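Re: manganese (III) ion structure - here you go.
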Amino acid sequence: MKKINLLGATGSIGTQTLDIIAANPDRFTLTSMSAGKNIQKVSEIITQFKPKLVSVMNEKDAVFLQKEFPDITIVHGEEGLIEAAVGIEADVLLNSVIGSVGLKPTLAAIEAGMTIAIANKETLVAAGDLVVQAAKQYNVPLVPVDSEHSALFQSLNGENPKRITQLILTASGGSFREFSRDQLQHVTVEQALAHPNWSMGNKLTIDSATMMNKGLEVIEAHHLFAMPYDQIECLLHKESIIHSMVEFEDTSVMAQLGSPDMRVPIQYALTYPDRILMANAKRLRLDEIGKLHFEKMDFERFKALSFAYDAGREGGTMPTVMNAANEVAVQLFMEGRISFMQIEDIIEQVMDEHETINAPSLEEILETDRITRKKVYGIV
Ligand code: MN3
């Protein structure tokens, strides 16, 4: 029986993780969880899965839930999020929190010796060096949940990492893949939120539309697979059937394929190195699909992707700044306070003005993150 602490339980990844736990009650148990403000859903999860500890965002909600469920521990806020990660002993922390707020709980779980199933890409972007270093120090596996990184991870099974020539991340192109930059000027939040292939949370869907999602994933891949940026490629592939590929020195390319279904990489992260039956999954039928399409990535069209390569190559606190600026800009776009194109403008401006701190400490990263968020609000 694998004990799972789940951060971000009411989000898209969290909900699908709970589906997997529910489908395999003899294999997995939910020991602890965190969520934001969806208290109705939290109550349902507690009733069904009976975790020992639950963290929510607000104190008011925590007080309400504690009355409803007197037998379990209810905590709240940022401290509560760390409690949810490590307050109850577990085998795995599945971190599907959105944003760099997932950093501290991830580090705490690493120090506690838990396997980290990482869906919280912003943490690896904001502080990848620190997280990877800590995982090495405590001898803790970092298992990717993101579909591209799971594909790379699976394609690397049994391979010698020294023989890799390239990691090739595939990208669907997001909701605006057919739009020119001119056409992007007046797009709406509703348009941006309609992703053609994947059903994901709002932040991730907007990030896909700007291509910042792929940018974050490039940095994530750099850290997870210790690969230089020159050896990480992005390829447009609108069907999202090939989830990513690895090229080796002998020119062989290993790919992982499947119907777009996030439960597959989530479940693999929980069962690795084994695989188990996936209930109600759509099997891949290439004869029905017929054709797969590939296109060279256009860095002029998708400026956010070049920001990410720049930030990654610069290193230090630059990816922290890029990520924090993006998080706030996406929030402001969703609130209708800035246009879609201003997301890029804000990130570019904030990165231009940042003086990189090399090999930053955790405190320096957290401070940089905080200052950047304030700065973006100042600009707007
Ligand atoms: Mn992905």
